[in-house]
Design a protein that fits this description.
The complex is a heterodimer of chains A (about 325) and B (about 325).
Chain A (H helix, E strand, L loop, with lengths): L1 H17 L1 H16 L6 H26 L7 H19 L3 H24 L5 H20 L4 E2 L3 H8 L1 E2 L2 E2 H18 L2 H11 L1 H6 L4 H27 L1 E2 L5 H14 L11 H20 L4 H25 L1
Antiparallel strand pairs in A: 1-4, 2-3
Helix pairs in contact in A: 1-2, 2-13, 3-8, 3-11, 3-12, 3-13, 4-5, 4-6, 4-11, 4-12, 5-6, 5-11, 8-9, 12-13, 12-14
Chain B lengths: L1 H26 L6 H26 L7 H17 L4 H26 L3 H19 L5 E2 L3 H8 L1 E2 L2 E2 H19 L1 H11 L1 H6 L4 H27 L1 E2 L5 H13 L11 H20 L4 H26 L7
Antiparallel strand pairs in B: 1-4, 2-3
Helix pairs in contact in B: 1-12, 2-7, 2-10, 2-11, 2-12, 3-4, 3-5, 3-10, 3-11, 4-5, 4-10, 6-10, 7-8, 11-12, 11-13
Classes of the chains: A mainly alpha (about 325), B mainly alpha (about 325).
Chain lengths: ~325, ~325
């Protein structure tokens, strides 16, 4: 009897250790339901899921990058570039919708290719590459758009993100599909194992036959590709393509989500479920702050404190548990 | 041999500045006017003070990405206190203390929790940026006391007051790095942290000092900037993040740590100042300027790392 109890408590410990963000999310949701008026309502939950759907896509991208021990500070600016790209192609140039989307995704891939190549081949530290490329990308986005937005996008283009299928928004469905694909990729494929190995010890991974150069570049490409998808969906959602969409604040939010979700800053560790719940935690907090009528600026400062707590928590957890 | 190499590098950097100066002077109308030159060095003082501290941070293989937020926040704190009628010195001291505290916090995170510098400084910067917006609900403040604006805009013996402050910072930091034991330790820590620890030197103290000093300098730059513009806008620190790093990189501070001279970072700051000024005079939009600076940083760091890799084998840099 005692033995099974020990095992049970060990299993709980293991669950908490591996899925900290799920536990935090549940506690947070419980507290919010008890103390925040209007939080506990189906409509509100749907809103939270809708708001989380797009950042989750970008967050899964940055999770991969964090797993290699790198970082992508240009993420928010890539979002802006891809947003204005798709807007310009669809409305101003008037290309077919599928072609505009393909071209936008290619822009995303190109950004990732450049970032990844500079990190892996030229060996410039990731935060320097992406800090610099972020400013470059932001500049390019501003130049191609002449600093102005593209409004009122065609309805057929918007339909991709705002249609309801079986009561669920297509944006949410797309996000869900991407989560499933990423889950398979990260936890059930050789790619995921190679990535974890590379993140823990790049040298050992290379010596055991993992093509680490290609892997590292590929990871940055996947990240920017996912950001491009997020950009298209976000553009549809706000019905406006903006070069200033995203930016440093967005990068920070997405990184926060991944880190709350348990992705390690030192590489090797990261889970899809963790990152999804990491973003959900952020969105629940944002939702509560809205419901409580606190200014958005408070939220921005608050978010920083949340990420600090997450980092400290992760550190302490790895030592104690 | 090593000394010779460094002096060659310094010479190259300084020579390129002089060349740049004359080429631009002959090509860009209005560049060589006294007023414009004064403007350049006045504007460069902000970059130079930030770059001063950034040099130390990069020497110990760190980076400070909190410039934007901390600069705006400290300027905002200081500005609000000034408008409340606090004495200038006291308001400045509070602003500087806030900056130093944020820097020390970065040092604490790096030292005690071993968190990568770019993450903790990014976070602290974001908290600072949020607080700067929060303090005055996102609005700008201005119309500071005359003596305060004089600190930013006035001149003594023909030189802007800002630049006296800048030179004070550069000289003190240079002396600290070249003449004191602490400076030697800082270089040593960038070169090989394990050896420094084995010598019984406290790396904690060095981390606290370097990041704290960085916060202090950023706060000073913010205060000076608010004096120059006679305004504090909650996001006015934005351009200085990239410029400060660019100044260091152009000044030859190695991203691999252990190498860099403060006075060369000053030269780097001047180059960035000149570049912004010239492109402004030519009517080129700041977007292009940022693209330019971004490319410069990546290219110079890439070249620097490439050179180093030929001599030392580095499997994983960070």
């Amino acid at each position: 009897m005692g033995n099974t109890q020990v095992l049970f408590s060990q299993r709980i410990r293991k669950f908490v250790k591996n899925n900290g963000s799920v536990v935090i999310f549940l506690i947070l949701a419980l507290l919010a339901s008890l103390f925040v008026k209007n939080f506990f309502a189906l409509n509100n939950f749907l809103t939270i899921i809708k708001q989380a759907a797009i950042p989750v896509i970008a967050c899964l991208g940055i999770t991969l990058v964090l797993m290699t021990g790198g970082i992508d500070l240009s993420l928010g600016y890539t979002l802006g570039l891809c947003s204005i790209t798709v807007g310009l192609f669809v409305k101003t140039v008037g290309l077919p919708i599928w072609l505009s989307i393909v071209l936008t995704l290619l822009v995303g891939l190109l950004v990732g290719l450049i970032n990844g190549t500079l990190v892996q081949v030229v060996k410039v530290p990731a935060f320097i590459v992406t800090l610099g490329s972020g400013y470059i990308i932001f500049g390019i986005a501003q130049i191609v758009s002449s600093g102005s937005d593209v409004n009122r996008l065609p309805a057929s283009f918007r339909a991709i993100g705002v249609t309801n299928i079986l009561g669920l928004n297509t944006t949410v469905l797309i996000s869900l599909v991407i989560c499933l694909i990423m889950y398979y990729l990260l936890h059930h494929s050789t790619f995921g194992r190679a990535l974890a190995a590379f993140g823990f010890n790049a040298k050992a991974a290379r010596m055991s036959g993992i093509r680490s150069e290609a892997l590292n570049i590929l990871v940055y490409m996947i990240c920017s590709f996912l950001v491009a998808i997020a950009a298209i969906l976000l553009t549809i959602r706000v019905n406006c393509a903006q070069p200033t969409m995203g930016g440093g604040v967005y990068t920070f939010e997405v990184i926060t989500g991944a880190i709350i979700g348990g992705a390690s800053l030192f590489g090797g560790i990261g889970t899809v479920i963790g990152s999804v719940f990491g973003v959900l935690i952020i969105k629940v907090l944002e939702n509560c702050i809205n419901l409580l009528n606190v200014s958005y600026y408070t939220y921005q400062a608050f978010q920083g404190i949340v990420i600090l707590l997450a980092i400290i928590f992760e550190n302490v957890k790895n030592r104690k548990l | 041999m090593k000394g010779l190499k460094i002096s060659k590098k310094s010479l190259l950097i300084i020579a390129s500045v002089v060349a740049l100066f004359f080429i631009l002077g002959s090509l860009v109308p209005g560049f060589l006017s006294m007023r414009n030159l004064m403007n350049i060095i006045r504007q460069s003082s902000i970059i130079a003070i930030t770059a001063c501290a950034m040099t130390l941070v990069i020497i110990i293989k760190g980076i400070d990405l909190s410039v934007t937020g901390v600069l705006s926040f400290c300027a905002m704190v200081n500005g609000l206190l000034l408008l409340k009628g606090w004495p200038i010195l006291l308001a400045m001291l509070v602003g500087l203390a806030v900056g130093t505290a944020m820097g020390l916090f970065n040092g604490l995170m790096v030292e005690k929790l071993g968190i990568p510098a770019f993450i903790t400084t990014l976070v602290v910067g974001n908290v600072g940026g949020g607080l700067a917006l929060l303090l005055n609900a996102g609005k700008s403040i201005g119309a500071f006391p005359a003596a305060y604006v004089f600190m930013g805009n006035g001149t003594i013996l023909g030189m802007p007051v800002s630049n006296y402050i800048m030179f004070f910072f550069v000289i003190v930091t240079s002396l600290l790095m070249s003449k004191t034991r602490l400076g030697t330790y800082i270089y040593a820590m960038g070169g090989n942290e394990t050896v420094v620890k084995q010598q019984g030197i406290s790396t904690a103290a060095i981390n606290y000092f370097v990041y704290g000093f960085s916060g202090f300098c950023i706060a000073m730059a913010g205060i000076l900037l608010s004096g120059q513009l006679d305004t504090v806008h909650p996001t006015q620190g934005e351009p200085y993040q990239l410029d400060a790093i660019a100044a260091c990189v152009i000044g030859g501070v190695s991203m691999l740590g252990g190498e860099g001279k403060v006075y060369l970072a000053l030269v780097g700051a001047l180059i960035i100042g000149v570049q912004r000024n010239v492109l402004n005079l030519l009517g080129i939009h700041p977007f292009y300027q940022n693209i330019f600076v971004g490319i410069i940083i990546i290219v110079i760091v890439a070249i620097n790392i490439h050179q180093k890799r030929r001599t030392i084998e580095i499997s994983k840099i960070f």
